[in-house]
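Good morning C.,

I know you're traveling, so I'll keep this short. The sequence:
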Amino acid sequence: MSGNTEKPEKEEDSQNKSCQIETETLLDRLHLQGKFQQKLSPADLLQIGPPVKQHHVESEKDLARTFLHRLIMLDYRARYISVRSSCQIKESLKASSSDWDVFVSSSFDTHKKDKVSVHPMDVQMAVFHCSDSFLKQMMITKLSQCQYALPLLVPDPVTMEIECPLWTLREITKTWRENQIKDKSKIVTMKSVPVYKAETPLVSFFRLGSLSVSKSQLMNTLINNRHDTFFHRNCPGSTKSRYLMDGVAEIAWYCPAGKPNDAFNDCIAFCNLHGDALLIEKQRDILIEKSSINIFLVASLQSDEESRSLISSLFKSHKPLICLTVNQNHDPVKTKKGKYIMGLKDKSHSDVSEQLKMIIREVLSSLDGPILKPSFQLETMAELSGIRVDETDPACQRGKSAAIKIINLLTKDNMDVSKIKDEFLPCQGKLWHQWSKIHREMFHLRGNIEMEKSKKEEKLMNIRQKQCAASCSELMEFFTGSLSSLPPTDREYFLKWTQIFIDDLSTDGLSSILKSYDEKWSEVLVLKNKQDKSDLLLKTKTDLEDISKKLQSATFGLEHIFREMGQIYEAHKTTHRESRHTDWSEYPELAAQLMISGHPMELMDGDAGHVPLTWISSLLEEVIKKLGDKRVFVLSVLGLQSSGKSTMLNTMFGLQFAVSAGRCTKGAFMQLLKVSEEMKKDLKFDYVLVVDTEGLRALQVEGNNTLHHDNELATLVVGLGNLTLINIFGENPSDMQDILQIVVQAFMKMKEVKLCPSCVFVHQNVTDVAAAEKNMDGKRRLQEKLDQMAKLAAKEEVFNVGRFSDVIEFDVQKDVKYCAQLWEGSPPMAPPNPGYSESIQEVKNTILSKASRSAGITLSQFKTNIQDLWTALLTESFVFSFKNTLEIAVYRKLEEILAQWRGRFEIKMKEFHEQANRKLDGVIQLKKILDDIIIIIVIIIIIVIIIIIMILLLYIMHIQQKEGRKMKDQKSEFENKLLQKSKELAHKLKDKAKDEKELQRQFSSVWSSWVTELTADIKPVEDINLEQDQLTILQELGFEPALIDESKRSGRYKKISEVGDYSGYMKTSGNLLVDSYNKYKARGAFSHEEQEQIRSLIDQAEEESLGAIKNKPVAATGYTPTYLHEMANHVTEKVQKFLSERKYTLNKEFKVDLLLHVFYRAESWIQESHKKFKLNNDPITYLESKKTQFYTVFRSFCKENSSAVVLG
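The tokens, ready to paste straight into the viewer:
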């Protein structure tokens, strides 16, 4: 008895040892020995390495590495890599036999057995077993994107323990469309669900015994007839011997597209148990239990008793059963409810597939009730006994526990997902947006600059203090605490779990909001077709807009938590405020650790459109502390929204930027990629720093904000990048050309930032393989367009640039690439196009080729570049509000014309006013003549005419002297009232007449209130703001505020007439990247005669302008900005005339400095004249000037001096 039980155990041990030996041999052949214990990690893969072989390898040792790299690049042919050695085909050297004998000999070399090739699925499973959980997850996610089946149950090749790799499936989401009937009409709804949560029917396939028909091939015809979802015996590279696939159960999902030709109307999971199910009992029983339908392939139910017994037991259960007999030929037969049998002999795959689809649809539609229609859910696999789930790993559990605490905080009050950020991440919401807005305004101050600057700095500090007060949230305290306390592996699990749970939370919230949006949008469409519904339509549109804003607020991810860390750090560092709750000073170090380990970090906040410079600088400083000041090659990418930028980077480097259409990248993110040791001999830098950006021309950004935000973002990433990929969807680059025009013009304006950018155009979704050859004319036109807009921008910015490549390095012959379309067919079941992967690999090779000629920059230089470039962008914001350079030129021309029209209009109005005054003087002269006539012919003129003339004279005099009389009357009235008030006060204080200080104090205390009371109804003469008027006039003449501010700050305009050398004012000519002034100096300076001509021009402009302004009646009638307009127009015309007679050109700086100089010289005279006007015409000023005299009168009253002086 005991001997019988020991025998199976010995056989099992023997099988296990044999399996271990085979596994070790396989791993050795694949160069993976040692990796079964010391697992491969994503860090081993995510490096800049040598180009990957596209079609075959020369050694089995390269199979695993090539498979992984091509899989990461979304090339589904990674499964079919062949080994082709360089050896020649053997030739027979037998001299004794004829060629024919050798040819037909059945025994020729039968004793020599060539080594069998490694089975492609053994390569996949060997890599799987030798990878850590994070690389496994990445690998399985890529397999899913390639529309391949995924491991569901995997026997350990050493212990033979069954494992369910649930963790590896956590990042996979399936999207499909299903048809629903609502109100008798068919509605197609979209679903996007993580596969671990998806509840779907499960259809499992089993093979009993050895069969001539491929089960996997049959399953492929059900799921996707054009793609081998499951590897089968007829796939390239297949061999009879495989070591790691028997006992593996793979799963795949059919996702309908919502079209009439869908095989099934709902998402269905298909499971394939590899190997003979009679020998693999544990996996077989698990799948039978979990499945909605079980499908068995057998040779014949009559010949095999073991198969017959198993099918018989299943036939008696309530589970639907489909039996496919390979050696029988008959149509499908339904024996009883849910039980079918069908013969396969002499039938084509397509016929079998169609009949099988029909049976599955019939079975699924007939099942009803929770018992008869079970839904499969991946998460329930963790509940099964007898199998190990990978998530039970202690590190995984510790990370999950920490993440659950975070999610519990977010969900404890059942809060709407759109309100989570406002509640738990307050520093990055309204406060940060307000700070960003005010900070931008700091670079464009007007009026009293110092006072405005002080006010805004105070506002910025107040906001930072509010952020500090709001930063003590439990969420951030626990999140940062976990980051700092958990070991590296636990921390990685923690971040992954947190993202998974947040995505889960966001997806549920977004689904309900999207449903509301869809319903409201349908209402809007219905109302648009109805009459007299304008009010209701307006309300519905408002509701729709509210839902749209809610949709934006509901987008929530790990990047928002990291953004909050940055804002907390900036707030505390700015205010130098300590916090008992958060150790904010450690935040940059925590973020630096993550960045070094491969996590993307936010460079520009996409919601606020601002770069948190303090946070980014501290973060990079910490990276430098940990790595050293390494050299990096900065690669940035730019393109329109949903043009495939992130997908391209993910495919090229194996990164994991967000790529779903519903959750596109916002702002800009940076990620470090290490250069592998074998590539360091070809490259002069240690890392590639990839900068991914949000799509330009996004529909979510409204109005003119789109242009400003996009142009600013584009200039930032092109300026930062050693190389920028200009990503274009299709073959038309028109939108990107507009953006590049703004980028070029911005670079020209920012002379002080030394930049050396270059670019490569990547056209995606080009279907024609001959696109590169056919688009030679398109390339020529692109080059012409880029050069043309560069010249236009140069003209606006007084640069003599001849080509686009003078500003941004670009070779139209080498730097324009065409990529195939991403999908091979129509999603959701389409795999990626292998041609796309090849195209992206070619682009990557181009990038590395260009990078090999560059030394890159150090991390500290990169940090400085960000600071300099962002500061320059904020200073030069004017240019970003336009679509392209042509718009800027037109705008400035319009400004110039309007300024001229306004100046002319104001001059005409002044002339008209002066003519009116002259006519009035003529009328006064007429009065004198009439007086003479009245004296001569007084007897003749009747008394009535005399009265009429007197009335006329009085009226004319009233018009002329109205203001003067009114002022005198007011003065007299005010003096009388003040005299009376002085008497009243003197009477009250007669006892204190001898106390001079007390009298003075009492008088001063009531004087201001007396003046205010008496002049309450009179509008005072306003002070003039010459600085603001000057700025307005200069802007109307087309000069940028930044140029004006820079001239004022330097003060050089005050001494322009004393400058010894005017060469600095000569219009620059040359390359943007060379200091133009030095380049000119190298050729020689202005001659002495030319210097004197310019100095003479300045003196004449000053003298003529001062003479003209001093002829204006400012003291009599007051100041008006028209006077400055006249001066500015006169100086501008004089400069234009001067330059038209010369062979050289003076730049904008000269014109601005000269105008400011003339204004400065006239300023004191205008101020003094206006002061006189104000003294004579402003009652308040007049009374304040008489205060001393009134005090003398008041003191005399107090001393009862009867000779009090009465003011006249």
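Safe travels,
E.
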